[in-house]
Amino acid sequence: MEVIQAIGRRKAAVARIYVTEGKGNITINKRSVDEYFPSKLLQYVVKQPLSLMEAEEKYDIKAVLDGGGYKGQSEALRLAIARALVKIDPESKAALRAQGFLTRDPREVERKKPGQPKARKRFQFSKR
């Protein structure tokens, strides 16, 4: 099996991954997944597509994460892994789609407007 490349995005985070056959090692920015995401919840989010397809021990994943926060990065990585699994096995697309792992979350931060402290918040109104 050659190297499979995939990309995933969420908010301002971008995940570029390279998947090869291996023992199930996930390396993110030259660190292990346990070191990069200390939270067990975020580790679970990253490994969801692999556990659904029962492929935790089949592939080694090398990921480059950039931008955003830890939550956005973990969800971007999940999308990238799901896309890579579909490239490897097109039969898995229906199962991953049913769980929502192939849907790119389109929500982005709304811009701050002039004359307001934030995007929607207004300064206090004084009638007199």
Short structural summary:
The chain is an alpha+beta fold and 128 residues long. Helices cover 34% and strands 23% of the residues.
Strand content: 15-25%
Total number of helices? 4
What would the principal axes of the Cα set say about the shape? elongated
- What is the mean predicted local confidence, pLDDT? 94
CATH topology: Ribosomal Protein S5, domain 2
CATH structural class: Alpha Beta
Order of helices and strands: EEEEHHEHH
Helicity, in percent? 25-40%
Descriptors for this entry?
128 residues, alpha+beta, Ribosomal Protein S5, domain 2, 5-stranded mixed β-sheet, 23% strand
Question: What topology emerges from the helices and strands here?
Answer:
Blueprint lengths: L3 E7 L2 E9 L4 E3 L2 E2 H4 L3 H13 L6 E8 L3 H19 L4 H7 L29
Plain-language structure description:
This protein has 128 residues and is an alpha+beta fold. The chain is 34% helix and 23% strand. It contains four helices and five strands. It has helices at residues 33-36, 40-52, 70-88, 93-99; strands spanning 4-10, 13-21, 26-28, 31-32, 59-66. It has a five-stranded mixed beta sheet with strand order 1-2-5-3-4. Helix 2 packs parallel to helix 3. The protein is elongated, with a radius of gyration of 18 Å. The mean pLDDT is 94.
